[in-house]
Specification:
The protein is of the alpha/beta class. The protein has helices at 13-22, 47-51, 66-79, 98-106, 177-187, 213-226, 231-248, 251-264; strands at 3-9, 28-32, 55-56, 84-88, 92-94, 112-121, 124-127, 130-133, 138-141, 150-151, 159-163, 191-202.
């Protein structure tokens, strides 16, 4: 088997169990980046005790970002001899057969660099890939379902099959690191593909609440990094984020995250 699964984990213990179960017999590298001492995955019962050799626990450090945890897992997977890894959030669940389909598409040609499934959430389709709106300077989720495998500008890191030699930019804390990675993969001459016959369910916010200070800061700072060096686009990004904050609310925590996002980028 040349494919494994890498799951960055913070605190969603119930979601993690479902994520591991959903990938069947594929080996998993679970990287615990939770804050506050001992890894939470071993507080009550060890994942190794639950699933045996299926699960490995590469050593992380307290409070890791998604990018750092993912890189730790990718490095461990590569050292263990795996050539491909499915990055899977601990609040995401694969449908039966989805990983086999992602593998099929990934290995269908030498110029494939990343493959993702259709992502669904409680309200329906969450993402069929990502695109960039030059009008609003925003990276947005695509909501159109393709009838066959199609190229995309980028894919969600919630469920993403890539080579274990790829690495995320660790300057991104919690947002748009997946977009930036796909852009770099594409610059290598590789294609970014959405596989409509593969599906996954994404709880969204199950790992880090989308309206938390950290999530708001990470999304804004990551977005600003994508358009770094283009002042007009950066101004559009900040303006849109401010309007979104006013529309959706979120209180003082989200407001502080907005301010953090501007200063952190």
């Amino acid at each position: 088997m040349t494919t494994c699964v890498v799951i960055p984990h913070l605190s969603n213990r119930a979601g993690l169990a479902k994520a591991v179960q959903s990938v069947g017999d594929y080996p998993c590298f679970v990287v615990d980046g939770s804050k506050g001492g001992a890894p939470r995955v071993t507080e009550k019962e060890s994942l190794v005790d639950l699933w045996g050799s299926k699960v490995s626990l590469p050593k992380g450090s307290s409070g890791n970002s998604f990018a750092i945890s993912a890189n730790i897992g990718l490095s461990a997977a590569h050292l263990a001899g795996y050539s491909r890894a499915l990055l899977l959030n601990d609040d995401a669940i694969l449908e039966p057969g989805a990983l086999l389909e992602l593998e099929r598409v990934f290995t269908s040609a030498d110029d494939v660099g990343a493959v993702g499934p259709l992502l669904y959430c409680k309200s329906g389709l969450e993402s069929a890939g990502l695109c960039f709106s030059s009008r609003t300077a925003r990276a947005v989720q695509r909501g159109d379902i393709p009838k066959q495998v199609e190229e995309r500008v980028a894919l969600s890191g919630a469920c993403l099959l890539i080579s274990t030699t790829e690495r995320f930019d660790e300057s991104f804390d919690h947002g748009f690191e997946d977009y930036e990675l796909c852009i770099r993969i594409a610059k290598q001459g590789k294609r970014i593909l959405i596989a409509p016959d593969a599906r996954a369910f994404h709880e969204g916010g199950g790992t880090v609440s989308r309206r938390s200070r950290r999530a708001v800061a990470g999304a804004l700072s990551g977005h600003l990094k994508l358009v770094r060096g283009r002042p007009l686009m950066q101004a559009l990004v900040v303006s849109y984020a401010a309007l979104q904050l006013l529309r959706e609310g979120g209180g003082a925590d989200a407001l502080m995250g907005f301010c953090d996002g501007i200063t952190e980028q």
